[in-house]
Amino acid sequence: GNSIISIHGPSFTGNVIINDLYLYNNISPSTNTLLEFIDSDYPIMNRCFIYNNTLQDNLIALWERSYAMLSNIIITENSSTDVLHVSGINTNPQLENIIIAGNLGRALNSNGGNSYSLLFSNALIKDNSGGAGIINNGSVNLSNLSVIENGELSEYDAEGFTITESGLLTIGESNIFSNGTALYNNNTSDIVSAENNYWGHSSGPYHPTQNTSGQGDSLNFFTDIDPWLTEPNVDAPISPPTNVFKQASGNDIILVWDANLESDVAGYKIHYGDYTGYSYANNIDVGNVASYT
């Protein structure tokens, strides 16, 4: 395929292991994929940072017969149609402890296939312009996610997750808010199980039949949201502070933000100084406040 890194089987008899990989500043709009696994048995990808890449189609693609395990990966400030693209027969990846944030594109395209299933847990999906994801043919199970502020440029039915006529989705124990339409299910034969999630308000999500007074994110008919959580699930990744504003005042800089709703928040840190490619050179613990000068 047209990719920068391609790992192709089926000759592998053991795991392909990728640890501590830093992929950044690959600007190639005519290249389809940054990193792809094809017929690659049981690849393991851990502790990787993917930053400021521009590709045509995908950042990471898992194709036929890829029983991949991806964990502890940060993917941020990239541009591509899809951040993660997963498809093909006998493809059963497990994804956990992943941050997908601030990308120009869609966070997840689960394209499915025969004998296909995807498990995705403990992830932050935030501020991806193309939406949180599209679920096509195949079973997808999402749990302990924080899905926040996605989809400002979404071309599909939801800023969150769109489920096609053949998609199957279960999502639970997650915090899903500030996306507008969180879930839109086009599969009228299979109801999306979306119980035990927090939707941004204690009244629950807006649902056209189950909860018309809900003030959280919205869903369509073919979803089951009852019961819902009335406060965020603290086992899901913590959400970044929202409505952060900076104002100059003489020689000082005033920062203000909305306090997080998670009940176990101990305080906030402000990171500043030179950008290191991963964080910033300095940080200060300001305590459990919502402003700092």
Describe the structure.
With 293 residues, the chain is mostly beta strands. The protein starts with a strand and ends with a strand. It is globular. A hairpin with a 4-residue loop joins strand 23 (268-275) and strand 24. The mean pLDDT is 91. The strands form 5 sheets. A 9-stranded parallel β-sheet has the order 1-4-6-8-10-12-14-17-19, with no helix packed on it. Strands 2, 3, 5, 7, 9, 11, 13, 15 and 16 form a 9-stranded parallel β-sheet that branches. It has strands at residues 3-8, 17-19, 22-24, 33-38, 44-51, 58-62, 69-76, 79-87, 94-101, 104-112, 117-126, 133-135, 138-148, 161-163, 167-172, 175-177, 181-185, 192-193, 218-219, 223-224, 242-249, 252-258, 268-275, 280-287, 291-292. Helices cover 0% and strands 49% of the residues. It has no helices and 25 strands.
